[in-house]
Protein: CCHC-type domain-containing protein
Amino acid sequence: MSTVTSPETPVAAAAAGGGFPTQSMREEEALNRANHLDSDTLEGSCQNFAKQPKNDLLGPILVFKLATKLLELRQTSSVAKYASEFTGYSSYLSDGFFSDTVLKNSFYRGLKVYVRCLVFSEVFDPDCSLHQLITKSLLVDYAIFDDRSFDDNFCGMSSRTQWSSEPVAMEIDTISVGRLSKAERDFLRNNNGCFRCTKLGHKRYDCPLENKHIGGSATHRRRANQKKN
Structure:
């Protein structure tokens, strides 16, 4: 009859028991291993010495748990928090454990729907790295919502936040523009956007919605006359 050996270290014991090792367990094991380092390790390069604790403390069971947690991770609030958790878990895995393509797909699947819709092309771009995908996702999240709370079932942008280079005639009478956030104002200002209808390609004094008012505002009339002259 085979016998089952008990884990030899606190970290292995915690992993075998289904939980994550505590900080004190890691410190205790690191101290034990430091006291038993051989001369080859001590006389080796600094780079190899720095990798040794990570390789020793992250046993196969714990690495598997971290990899599973990484693949199951989902965005529950902001992209910034999700990206921080994702990169935190991936940093514990050795280089090459997951390919960049797998990491990109996993990060993409964990994003909320409204972000996935706007970074779809980056996922299938072989020249786009995981870092670039994360950066694009952060920009999308910041530019559109700017620290708002999100509903898990939200699957699109608000009616006033639809960027287009050309105004759509059928939509002009139905657009309802609310108060813009700082991020949205900055986005429009930097991309030749209109504060009236939130579309790109023109300023407010050239907005079709502004022109619908008879005579327009005093500012609009003044700027229109300046353009004619």
Q: What stands out?
A: Residues 130-144 form the longest helix (15 residues). The chain has three domains: 10-57, 73-144, 169-228. Confidence is low (pLDDT under 50) at residues 1-21, 149-177. The CA atoms of residues 90 and 98 lie 9 Å apart.
